[in-house]
Design brief:
mainly alpha; 4 helices; 0% strand
Length: 79
């Protein structure tokens, strides 16, 4: 993911980040996770996939909708 604040907030440690303005940085990030003959890359990819399941579980409707409901019910009513 591009290395911007919102991506780090949402994806946390479940993504490989790269400088959006550096094609070389993107290539290196991809190599760190998709090189099929590098055991380090394969372990990194597996770890990101596992971590991704945990991070994405925070965004299922059962967890997000109650927060939105609480927020919306807390807004002042128009007069």
């Amino acid at each position: 993911a591009s290395d911007i604040g919102v991506h780090r907030d949402v994806f946390q440690d479940a993504a490989e980040y790269f400088n959006t303005y550096s094609p070389q940085d993107l290539v290196q990030a991809l190599q760190r996770v998709i090189d099929p003959i590098d055991p380090v890359a394969m372990r990194r990819r597996d770890a990101l996939i596992e971590r991704g399941h945990a991070v994405s579980a925070q965004y299922v409707p059962e967890r997000v909708l109650p927060q939105w409901r609480e927020f919306l019910l807390g807004l002042p009513t128009p007069s």
